[in-house]
């Protein structure tokens, strides 16, 4: 390997060789590649030096290929075909034949809502693939995307760094969720009863406060956060049979993973809606496998959101 003059290896030389083999003429090969005759002669000279063989010898008006040139011809054509098909014009992605791994980063919220639907959709179209759901949040998604080679991420991340692209999926709002028997609450809830009721908080970062508390404080009010957890499942378990109220996303409140009869209503405080987006590393955006996965994820999530919103 150390004795090869790699600086002298030029893909254009292989293209020139192919044209010379086809036309057996410097003039015709130059015309075929839309270059000057002197440039083609220079390429032939470089080829002869690189390969250490005359390659073509002139006999009258025709150039005769040497044995070395005849040996190289099918190899060169194979190399050029590989470059064309595998690098310059990669083939379409076939999910039905794919046997690799799809890695999808999901927040706790997104995993509960969409993991089953995503599994079903991907298994239907790519039955030989494997699917890995990677837990991410607003604080670790950048590092996780690189370290775990995540293909796409679903969440409410904002102010993305420039190495990420994104696609808007939908907008989510909030409801109050509670056990009406255990809390004694009925709908609608006014601000006074909202503040008086102990509250549970879904908190990805472990903080027992949110923007709602800042808003209440500006109005001279304060609520009591009795418990917090990063897991919605834990909070949902706690709500049943306890004097607790929790503000959750509307779609989360509609999940049928529990056989309970919790009550939901609009919050008496103004809680901003939030957008859910799909993120991916910009450098991988044009890969056919990535393009197919993003389309599949987008269609699946859109259908799932519409299904949940139609539930009472």
Automatic annotation (TrEMBL):
Start and end residues of each HTH lysR-type domain: 9-66
Protein name stated in the entry: LysR family transcriptional regulator
Gene3D superfamilies on file: Periplasmic binding protein-like II (3.40.190.10), Winged helix-like DNA-binding domain superfamily/Winged helix DNA-binding domain (1.10.10.10)
Pfam family, one: LysR_substrate
Superkingdom of source: Bacteria
A GO molecular-function descriptor: DNA binding
Family: Belongs to the LysR transcriptional regulatory family.
InterPro entries registered for this protein in UniProt: LysR-type_TF, LysR_HTH_N, LysR_subst-bd, WH-like_DNA-bd_sf, WH_DNA-bd_sf
Annotated organism of origin: Photobacterium aphoticum
Keywords for this protein: DNA-binding, Transcription, Transcription regulation
Entries under PROSITE patterns matching the protein: HTH_LYSR
């Amino acid at each position: 390997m150390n004795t090869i003059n790699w600086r002298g290896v030029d893909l254009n030389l292989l293209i020139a060789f192919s044209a010379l083999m086809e036309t057996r003429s410097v003039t015709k090969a130059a015309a075929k590649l839309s270059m000057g005759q002197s440039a083609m002669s220079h390429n032939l000279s470089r080829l002869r030096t690189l390969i250490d063989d005359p390659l073509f010898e002139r006999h009258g008006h025709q150039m005769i290929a040497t044995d070395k040139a005849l040996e190289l011809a099918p190899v060169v054509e194979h190399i050029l075909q590989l470059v064309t098909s595998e690098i310059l014009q990669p083939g379409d992605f076939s999910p039905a034949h794919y046997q690799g791994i799809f890695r999808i980063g999901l927040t706790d919220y997104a995993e509960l809502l969409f993991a089953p639907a995503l599994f079903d959709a991907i298994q239907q179209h790519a039955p030989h693939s494997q699917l890995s759901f990677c837990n991410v949040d607003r604080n670790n998604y950048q590092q996780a995307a690189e370290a775990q080679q995540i293909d796409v991420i679903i969440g409410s991340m904002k102010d993305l760094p420039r190495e990420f692209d994104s696609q808007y999926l939908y907008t989510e709002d909030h409801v109050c969720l509670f056990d009406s028997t255990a809390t004694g609450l009925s709908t609608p809830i006014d601000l006074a009863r909202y503040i008086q009721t102990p509250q549970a908080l879904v908190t990805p970062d472990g903080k027992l406060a949110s923007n709602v508390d800042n808003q209440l404080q500006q109005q001279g009010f304060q609520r009591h956060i009795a418990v917090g957890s990063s897991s919605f499942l834990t909070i949902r378990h706690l709500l049943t049979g306890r004097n607790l109220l929790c503000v959750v996303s509307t779609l989360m409140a509609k999940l049928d993973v529990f056989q309970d009869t919790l009550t939901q209503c609009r919050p008496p405080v103004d809680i901003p809606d939030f957008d859910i987006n799909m993120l991916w590393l910009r450098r991988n955006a044009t890969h056919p496998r990535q393009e197919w996965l993003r389309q599949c994820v987008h269609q699946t999530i859109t259908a799932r959101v519409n299904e949940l919103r139609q539930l009472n």
